Amino acid sequence: MKRNKTGCNSGGSAHPEIRIGDRWKDSHGSIITIAEHQLNRVIFYREGYHSPCMCTQDRLHREFTLMEKSLLTDKSDMARVMEAQGVEKIRIINEIISRADTLTIDSQREGTAV
């Protein structure tokens, strides 16, 4: 049997990127919100719990699943595109294009140019 060697390696990260405002869920269904992310630890708040909790990135990836990514509203579109990687970058570009298309359609209805 012949092996097919394409020379291509898989790219990207195996784990989702951890960002402030992301919402994760544990195996019991409890939801947490990321408050701070550093190189060796993640600080988060559990729903209904007032004090912050802390864990490592490895434990977060092992015990929690990503539910909802935070929207980076405080950054410009270009900064969001440059910061993202892989499929996330494509999703952000498509979001920007669709938003620009709706602005164009809305301005044409009102009779103004963009």
Offer a few descriptive terms.
5-stranded antiparallel beta sheet, SH3 type barrels, DUF4222, flat, DUF4222 domain-containing protein, 114 residues, 2 domains, alpha+beta
Notes on the structure:
By secondary structure, the chain is an alpha+beta fold. It has 2 domains: 18-70, SH3 type barrels; 71-114. It is built from 3 helices and 5 strands, in the order E-E-E-E-H-E-H-H. Strands 4-3-2-1-5 form a 5-stranded antiparallel β-sheet, covered by helices on one side. The radius of gyration is 20 Å and the shape is flat. The model has no long low-confidence stretch (mean pLDDT 80). This is DUF4222 domain-containing protein. It comes from Klebsiella variicola.
SSE topology sketch:
Layout: E1 23-26, E2 31-37, E3 42-46, E4 53-55, H1 57-63, E5 64-68, H2 77-83, H3 87-110
Antiparallel strand pairs: 1-2, 1-5, 2-3, 3-4
Helix pairs in contact: 2-3
Protein name: DUF4222 domain-containing protein
Biased composition (Polar residues): 1-12
Pfam family, one: DUF4222
